Automatic annotation (TrEMBL):
GO CC terms of this entry: plasma membrane
Name by which UniProt lists this protein: Putative RDD family membrane protein YckC
Keyword Cell membrane included in the entry's annotation: yes
Superkingdom of origin organism: Bacteria
Statement: the UniProt record of this protein carries the keyword Transmembrane: yes
Cellular location(s): Cell membrane
Organism for this UniProt entry: Nonomuraea dietziae
Transmembrane segments: 49-70, 76-95, 116-136
Main localisation: membrane
Signal sequence interval, chain numbering: none
Length: 155
């Protein structure tokens, strides 16, 4: 007997995901009709996370501490409120935040255009709760994207 035992098929699926079991789910966004690569393709986790970090740093350090002289450790909800306001205004008017712009992504409605105000408001509230933003489907859409009927695409 060899030193390495083979795992049953169900264990491979459970440990490695359905792709390791030979199931082809297509590329992220394929079932939404977006291209696989380039402009208009689904933004991946790395770009989205980078944009969020940039926006959060702008809100906590640049605005809260430098401009308003508020210590986020003493008033933890102030940076969240600043983040919500800047996110709502920038995504509502421009379709992207400063972080999105730097990472080459934007928020789009499912038809590819700019999202409307109500979906942006819902998306902002859910994004501030954080949990919906870290739960993704196979198309790289978080709960906040699905509920607001939006997607984040590359520019």
């Amino acid at each position: 007997m060899s030193g390495k035992q083979e795992q049953p098929r169900w264990t491979q699926t459970w440990l490695g995901g359905v792709r390791s079991a030979g199931v082809d789910l297509g590329y992220p966004g394929e079932r939404l009709g977006v291209p696989e690569e380039g402009s208009g393709s689904m933004a991946r986790f790395g770009r989205r996370f980078g944009a969020l970090v940039i926006d959060w740093l702008i809100c906590t350090w640049a605005i809260a501490q430098a401009l308003l002289r508020i210590n986020p450790a003493e008033s933890p909800w102030v940076p969240v409120a600043i983040f919500a306001v800047q996110y709502l205004l920038l995504v509502g008017f421009l379709g992207q935040t400063f972080g999105h712009r730097l990472m080459g992504i934007r928020v789009a409605a499912m038809d590819g255009g700019r999202p409307r105000w109500l979906p942006v408001l819902v998306r902002t509230i859910l994004l501030c709760l954080a949990v919906p933003a870290v739960i993704f489907d196979r198309d790289q859409r978080g709960v906040h994207d699905r509920v607001s009927n939006t997607m984040v695409v590359r520019m």
